[in-house]
Structures are given as C-alpha cells and as structure tokens.
Design brief:
InterPro entries: HTH_AraC. Residues 171-270 form the HTH araC/xylS-type domain. This is Transcriptional regulator, AraC family. One of its GO terms (molecular function) is sequence-specific DNA binding. Pfam families: HTH_18 (PF12833). There is one protein chain. This protein has 301 residues and is α+β, with helices and mostly antiparallel strands. It has two domains: 2-167, Jelly Rolls; 170-286, Orthogonal Bundle (Arc Repressor Mutant, subunit A). The protein has ten helices and eleven strands. A seven-stranded antiparallel sheet has the order 1-2-3-10-5-8-11, with helices on both faces. The radius of gyration is 19 Å and the shape is globular.
Length: 301
C-alpha cells in the first residue's frame, strides 16, 4: 500500500502473516518504506504518533529513523532497535528509508529472552549493544538488493530458529493475553479469577510478561479498542468509538491523554500518514487494526 500527496514523501507499507508455527509469537512482519517522489527533493520527513504496543523490532536497512517514547524530542534510533511494551505514544520522524518491523507478542518475548518485560517497558534499546539480544544481530546482514519476499523470508527463517524452544508459562501468557482482549474483563479481580491467580500473583506475573501492572493493562486494552475504531474510520465521532468499559467520554479523554500525551481533538487534527494507512492494511491482512488487539494462537503442545 502506498500513501502520498503531490510533492510529499510516499509511504509504502506491506504486511505479512508469519507461518502457522510462529503465530502464537509474532503478529506480523511488515515493510515500511519512505520514498522520495523525485530524487533529491526537499520534501519534509514523515511524522506520526504510534499508539502503545507490545514488543516491536525495527530493522533499518537504508536511511534513518528518529523516535521518542512519551514526552521528548525524537532522536536517531540504531539500525536494529527493540522497543519494549509501551504505555505511551511513540513519536517518530522518517526521511527516505527502507525498514522492516516485527510485531512480537508476549509469548514470543518469553521464548526470545529470559528478561522480564518490565526491564524493557517504555524504552528502546540497541540490539547490537544488548548482550541478551545478540541472537538477532544476523538481521543486519539482510541485503537491500534482495527482493521484498527474499528479505521477508530471511526474517521468518531466523525467527523460526530463535522461537523453536518452548518457554516456561507460555500457555499462561497466551491465556492471560486472550483474557485481556475480552471487553467483559473489566477489573483486576475478574482477570485474576479468569486466570485462577491471586491478585498479588497476577501483579507479579503481569509485570514480568507484559511489562505493566494489570490495572494499567486493562485501561490500555479498552483505550486501544476505542482508538482502533477511529483509525479505521476517522469520520466517526469519539463518542461512537467508546469501548463498553467506559462510563463516559470524560473517562475516555483521561485515558487518551495518559496513553497518547494529547487529547482526542488534538490527535484528530494531526495528519497520520503512516498509522492511518497501517491500520487499514493490517486489518486486511491480520484481522485487527492494531497489534495489541491481535488474538494470539495457542502454541502447539
């Protein structure tokens, strides 16, 4: 999918579902390119605001990207950057570039790393400088000259090897994520009951595998269920997008400011050259407009 205006940089997005055996661990792999309409043009870089997500790996094969999570000025990111689970919007700026992204689910993180998700929450890290993520560095060797399909296959081949070994508690992780997707699961007590955990055990478990306490995760999910509807149809009024868990629009506005760092009206006025197109493209391929609403498959027993 290509999105462009006359004289502006063009955004190219292409989403790919993983092989069946990787679907409990990866949502999609996607190509994100920003292309000059004419070589040497002085078009302004693309700018957008990414909503909170689970883990995301970005591979920058050509050009550069700048980003920040929460308040702050975007800074250049490494050529191989892991973003942990986020509870704040990530502002990013993209001049012409060729990149790939990998959406990693909590069960995928558990197989990929022995580290707690809380250690990576709301931050980006340089994979090549992180001793626990060195197994991902072969991705920097993907050739830009290869076809899109060859580049995509190289990513899936490596992850097929890295995610082959089961981790502890992955069945619990998947069931917890599925429970969070249920709009009827509106309280920590209800979530704990569904997972047959005490609230104290759930607190520790949520921080370890999702990066955040359960109450914030519940808010996170209801907010993104609402935002996803607007992303797919920006003509909707905010009141029409509200998740059933919201009492009123004021509660939704508080969540919006907490997670996006701005109010809904300000967000709606801003251009969204990447996320608007990405929501529709992702919905068409994966069935959900945003990564966090993806229903994970259960790992093969």
């Amino acid at each position: 999918m290509t999105d462009t205006a006359r004289g502006a940089l063009a955004v190219e997005l292409e989403f790919f579902l993983p092989p069946e055996q990787l679907r409990p661990f990866i949502t999609t792999v996607y190509r994100f390119d920003v292309v000059e309409p004419e070589l040497g043009s002085a078009a302004e870089p693309i700018r957008d605001w990414l909503h909170p997500e689970w883990f995301n790996l970005r591979i920058v094969l050509e050009g550069e990207l700048s980003a920040s999570i929460g308040p702050g000025t975007p800074v250049n990111v490494p050529r191989l950057v892991m973003t942990g689970p986020t509870s704040h919007a990530a502002e990013f700026v993209a001049p012409p570039c060729h990149t790939w992204g990998v959406g990693i689910l909590p069960a995928g993180w558990a197989r990929l790393s022995g580290k707690s998700a809380a250690e990576y929450a709301d931050r980006m890290c340089d994979v090549e400088a992180d001793s626990d993520l060195q197994q991902l560095t072969p991705l920097t060797q993907i050739s830009r000259s290869n076809s899109t399909l060859a580049q995509k296959d190289a990513i899936f081949t490596l992850f097929g090897k890295l995610l082959a070994k089961p981790s502890k508690r992955e069945a619990e992780i998947v069931e917890a994520q599925r429970a969070l997707l249920d709009p009827g699961c509106a309280t920590v007590a209800h979530l704990a009951e569904k997972l047959a955990m005490t609230t104290r055990t759930l607190e520790r478990f949520a921080l370890d595998v999702f990066g955040f306490p359960p109450q914030l995760l519940i808010r996170h999910q209801r907010f993104l269920r609402s935002l996803a509807q607007f992303m797919l149809d920006p003509s909707m009024r905010w009141i029409e997008t509200l998740d059933p868990q919201y009492y009123d629009q004021a509660q939704f506005t508080r969540d919006f400011k907490r997670f996006m760092g701005m109010g809904p009206r300000e967000y709606a006025r801003l251009p969204h050259p990447v996320l608007g197109a990405a929501a529709k493209a992702r919905q068409a391929v994966a069935g959900e407009a945003v990564q966090v609403l993806h229903r994970p498959a259960r790992p093969a027993s």
